[in-house]
Amino acid sequence: MTSAWSLTIFAVLIPKAPLWAAPFPPALKQNQMESRSIISSDHERDAKSLYGEAEKLIETGQYGLARRKLLEAARLWRQSRQPERAAQALRRLAEQDHRAGRWQAALQSYRQLLELKPLSRYDKVTALNSAAQICTSLRQFDFALNYFRRALSLARQKSEPQERTTALIGLATIYATQGDSHQARKYLDDARRLNWGDGSKQTGGPAFYLIGQSYREQRQVNEAQQAFAQARERYQRAGDQAGEALSLCALSEARLAAGQPNEALEQATQAVTLARGLKDSEPQWRAWLALARAQRARAQTEAAVTSYFRAIGSIEKQRLLALSADSLRIAMLAERQSPYRELAVLLLLRGSADEAFKSIEHARARATLDLLAQTRRERMPVDANGALRELVQRIARLRAEILSSSLPRERRRALQTELAEAEQRLEEARWDIEAKRLKHFTRPVTLKHVQETMLRPQEVLLEFFLGEERSYGWLISAAESHWIDLPGQKEIEAKVQPYLETLSLRPHNLYLERALAKQRELGEQIFRLLLGPLAERLKTGQQLLIMPDGLLYYLPFETLVRDGRYLIEDHEISYAPSASVLSVLRSTIGDSPGSKPMTLLAFGDPFFARDRLPQLPHTRAEALGIGELFPPERRRLYLGALATEQSLKRERLRNYRWLHFATHSLIDEHFPARSGVVLTPDRNSVEDGFLEMREIAELDLDCDLVALSACQTGRGQLVTGEGIVGLARSFLYAGARAVAVSLWNVSDAATAQLMSDFYRRLAASSSAPSALRQAKLESLRGNQATRHPYYWAPFIIVGNPQ
After folding, report:
1. Among 299, 703, 769, 775, which residue has the least CB neighbours within 10 Å?
2. CA of 575: how far to CAs of 341, 484, 714, in Å?
3. 374 SS3 class
4. Distance between CA atoms of 126 and 664, rounded to whole angstroms?
């Protein structure tokens, strides 16, 4: 009221000029300037005081309180227009979060620092390098490359050799990790030319460490040992205990490779001693892992088991403290698979089957398990204030233009670069939103829980665990559990890969019998390889719940042959990432089928631009044929021009029991967030017609099944331990209890017939696995041309079979 009253008086005093044009009286203007100066001075004094208090709190280990004071100091310095001091507070904050393993919080601080204007080039370069190093630790290599390249470009302009070296070694590390040794050597040679060997305490250690990794990959063990020893010496000189501990771990591994277990044990013990005094749990778990491996090599089994458990304890602690964003959890857990898997092997060898199963479940699909449990408690975070909408729309426009077949190559490359940058900003913004949620962590199930609580009569769980040297297969029912020893992962996948190729290639009608004979022969070999003695315990009519691992995620077990018969002829089969994920899905309480006001929501035959994607002529008939199985008042179909993304999002999706999509899918196995379901573009809407994974996860579903009748909808990024990060995972997050997906490019006509048969049985009250099995058997037995698994085997059910 005071402000409004003052403005009114001011307007009356100067009636000849409009309010917006009236000059401030000199006295008033001077008073306001003095007022701002006083406020700025107060802010500066308060910020300085807060920063000093934070430093004292850090010295006494009170990081939580220190963090709040640093944040407030940065805010006040920004308000008083002192970006250099604000940058100092944010950098200190990020450093503390980084050391404590709170990587996501550290990234947020570095991003805030980069947004300060003006910001010195040096501050910007160091922040970019630091953010890149965190992204590298999180295995977010696309983001890390972007940050390192920006840092390198700025450092060259300013002639900052130290920061140039950091960026170059960072780039070399990423390319080495990704197996591109040529690019890694190129960047490392560039770093050498900057004389990192003589003048840099900070980068000498990382450089020698990288050289050691390169030698180790080339199996030049002696050279690797020398490089790791030099890395340790450089880290010691720099006072970097974490770097020294990691160098000792690497040196211990090199000693083991050279057949020197005593020396390996000595260096691993030193690494543990150093790591114990650190706040960062990264060197701790790696040190305990190195010690466990050295103890195992010396046949100290019980001591090794204890060390593995301590390594896992450090990982779990880090996991609880560090991350809430799904993509970051995936990366972190994939990198930390070894202790869980190696411990499981030791436990099985000493006969501790229950503990081994627990260790395996701790290694499998942990990010999926956590977020699935989270979404069962509360919906995925959405852009409540519309802050991300502009980015989303920009990405949609870029993607639409890239899909044009007439686009010049240079323009396409420029657009792809722009798209990658926009997607990075969107992903980081979503990280910030996810970080505000409560963190829920779910304990993996035990073998006892699986047998006594989870499994239904006639169900058998088959769980596979692929290890570097040896693998294992489990058969678990309510009455018994058994495991068998299998070959190592490379041997198994070398035999499975050719078999998958025979399944996914359309057979020529002239050579159908020959193709079938080859497929059945290989199918029998794979069955014996994976199940061996466990086959004797399988009984006809049992329902098989498959928990794959590695390349086995792409294997339809229905096609395996036992005693001349396909497994699908004797069993209903469904799939899940882990027993723990299946347990969460089964604990979800949804509306009963009878209480649903609607049964089917279907989308088919969407319109595509001529130069982008081909039309799918059978999808209209597929959707119409399925719709005719249900009363008009209990179905809703969107076809052709009506099959838009906006139509889907306007629906009250929780009202439907089954959702069906007969359309194209676009799958990006390198960057799964780009994957999605293609619908009709709507010119009058902000939606682009591409329902991507992020949007799928934010849908509000409560359905028994989503059927994705499109090519390769079951594929995605195959992550060690996590399984497939793709469309099925997002629909499960959204509230679907199961998803029907395809493993390869499907036949349009054969799929339409298969889906019609499938829904006909669903409508007759069959469970989803039973209905899909009967539809497959009809294709297998009823039509000479579709006997080959290429036609009937691509679709599988992932999730909780109903």
Report:
1. 299
2. 21, 20, 11
3. helix
4. 44
Out of 51-60, 181-190, 653-662, 714-723, the most confident range is 653-662
CA 396 – CA 405 distance, rounded (Å) = 17
CA distance 93 to 89: 6
The backbone torsions φ and ψ at residue 459, rounded to the nearest 5 degrees and listed phi first, read: -95, 140
Model confidence pLDDT, tens digit, residues 318-376: 665 555 567 767 777 788 899 999 999 999 988 898 999 999 999 888 888 877 877 77
Q: Cβ(63)–Cβ(54) under 8 Å?
A: no
For 580-620, the DSSP string reads: HHHHHHHH-----GGG-SEEEEEEE-----TTT----HHHH
Q: Distance between CA atoms of 59 and 66, rounded to whole angstroms?
A: 10
Query: Which positions ≥6 away from 670 have C-beta within 8 Å?
Result: 717
The C-alpha atoms of residue 55 and residue 38 are separated, in whole angstroms, by 26
User: What are the structural domains of the chain?
Assistant: 2-41 (no CATH), 42-280 (1.25.40.10), 389-435 (no CATH), 460-582 (3.30.420), 588-799 (3.40.50.1460)
Q: Residues 645, 687: contact at Cβ < 8 Å?
A: yes
User: Nearest-CA neighbor of 724 among 658, 795, 798, 661?
Assistant: 798
Please name the residue ranges forming H helices in 22-140: 26-59, 63-79, 83-99, 103-114, 121-137
- pTM of the shown model: 0.82
Rounded distance, CA 557 to CA 43, Å?
A: 67
CA distances from 565 to 18, 533, 558 (A): 90, 17, 10
On the question of pLDDT at 27 being above 70, the answer is no
Q: What is the pLDDT of residue 522?
A: 97
Could you tell me whether strands 723-726 and 598-604 are parallel, antiparallel, or unpaired per DSSP bridges?
unpaired
Lowest mean pLDDT of 2-6, 277-281, 465-469, name the range: 2-6
Rounded to whole angstroms, the Cα distance separating 226 from 523 reads 48
Whose CA is closest to 135, among 112, 183, 103, 105? Answer: 103
pLDDT above 50 (res 9) = no
Residues 6+ apart with CB under 8 A from 480: 537
What is the side-by-side order of every strand in the sheet holding 481-486?
481-486, 471-476, 459-465, 543-547, 572-575, 795-799, 738-742, 705-709, 656-662, 598-604, 635-639
Q: Give residue 3's pLDDT band: very low, low, confident or very high (50, 70, 90).
A: very low
| Segment holding 211, helix H or strand E | helix 201-217
3 state DSSP class of 336: coil
Please state, in angstroms and rounded to a whole number, the distance separating the CA atoms of residues 119 and 81.
11
Long-range contacts of 612-621 (CB under 8 A, 24+ apart): 612/403, 612/404, 612/405, 613/403, 613/664, 613/678, 616/662, 616/663, 616/664, 616/748, 617/748, 618/748, 618/749, 618/751, 618/752, 619/662, 619/663, 619/709, 619/748, 619/752, 620/662, 621/752
CA 460-461-464 angle, to 5 degrees, is: 140
**pLDDT tens, residue by residue, 724-754:** 888 999 999 999 999 999 999 888 888 989 9
* pLDDT the model gives residue 436: 55
Contacts of 402 (CB under 8 A, 6+ apart): 412, 415, 416, 419
